[in-house]
Each structure stands twice: as C-alpha cells, then as structure tokens.
Amino acid sequence: MKKEDKSTVIGQIAATIGEYPHFYLTDIATLNASDTSSIRRECFKGNIKLVVVKNTLFKKALEQVGGDFSQLDVALKGNTAVMFSDNANAPAKLIKSFSKGKDFPKLKAAYVQEGFYIGEENLNILISIKSKKELIGDVIALLQSPVKNVISALSSGGQTIHGVLKTLIDR
Questions:
Q1: Domain 3-129 falls under CATH 3.30.70.1730
Q2: I want to staple 61 with a disulfide (CB 3.0 to 4.6 A). Which of 13, 37, 130, 165 is the partner?
Q3: Which of 55, 1, 60 shows the shortest CA–CA distance to 29?
C-alpha cells in the first residue's frame, strides 16, 4: 500500500473514531462467509458500523484522534474488526447473542464511556452498561414516583372525604 493511501485510510479511520463515542475491538477471523454476512447484517440493523482494520493503521488513527489509547495496544494483535456505535452496550449484546454456541466473534477490548475494557471476561459488564437515554428514563421514573404517590394519596383521600360527607348529608 502506498504511503498516500495509508494516510487516507488513517484519516478515514480517525474520522470514524471521532464520529462515534464507543468502539469495540473484536476478532471475527475464523467466521465463514455466511456467518460474516450475518454479523454484518445484524450490525446494520443495530446501527453498528463494522470495519476490518490493520492494527498499525488503527493505532496511527488513534494517535491522530488524540488522547491516551495505549491500553488498547494489548488487544491490537492478530485480526481485528472494529464495531463503532452510538449506543454503549449494543455491540456487546450483539457479540453475546451471535457467539452463542460458537467461539467467535471474540471481544478483544472496548472503549466505552471513556473507559477501557480489555478481554472477553468484560463482556457481561459491557452488556449491563446503560445508555444515556436509559439512564435519563430511569431518573425521570424515579422523580415521578413520589409525585405520583402524593397525587394518588390526595385523590383517594378526596374521594373518601367526599364519601363521608355524602353519607353524613344523607343521614
């Protein structure tokens, strides 16, 4: 590959890294053609961008982006496919569901919510991470719960007072 081509590829990878807040490094090398097509289809359905990269070019793209990504150097060996996503746990769920009964795809590392997760053993932790929208929904539900209880108590109390007054009037 020519030097100009390499710099173009590095620039494209760096732009993609800047576009997505989360990425997962996986190994899909031993998948056959139909499984590879299936995982690409599932990635497309889940709004996950799957890109097969050369490790050295990916390292250089990380350097262009800025920040300290040196913890990922351990995972950048062998075949590497990168899953880019806006949702923090979507690639982890996809890897888990797709690898049932199979050895691949394997999680090598992940950069999620400005944290590094190295190794396959972190897959269940990554699945349990909630997205920003899920966290906002949880906070809103927690805030609404006491208000709903107060309104419920007031409305039921009003009905009982009204019922007591009505029976007193009838007597």
A1: yes
A2: 13
A3: 55
Q: Say whether pLDDT at 158 is over 70.
A: no
Give the residue carrying structure tokens 């400005």.
114
What is the residue-averaged pLDDT of the chain? 85
| Distance separating alpha carbons of residues 131 and 126, to the nearest angstrom | 11
92-120 in b/e form (b: 16+ CB < 10 A) is: bebbbebbeeeebbbbbbbbbeeebbbee
How many Å apart are CA 103 and CA 146, to the nearest integer? Answer: 47
User: Do you find a cis peptide bond into 21, omega within 30 degrees of 0?
Assistant: no
Listed as own residue / partner, the contacts of 58-64 with beta carbons closer than 8 Å and 24 or more positions apart are 58/13, 58/82, 60/10, 61/10, 61/11, 61/13, 61/14, 61/17, 62/14, 62/17, 64/10, 64/11, 64/14
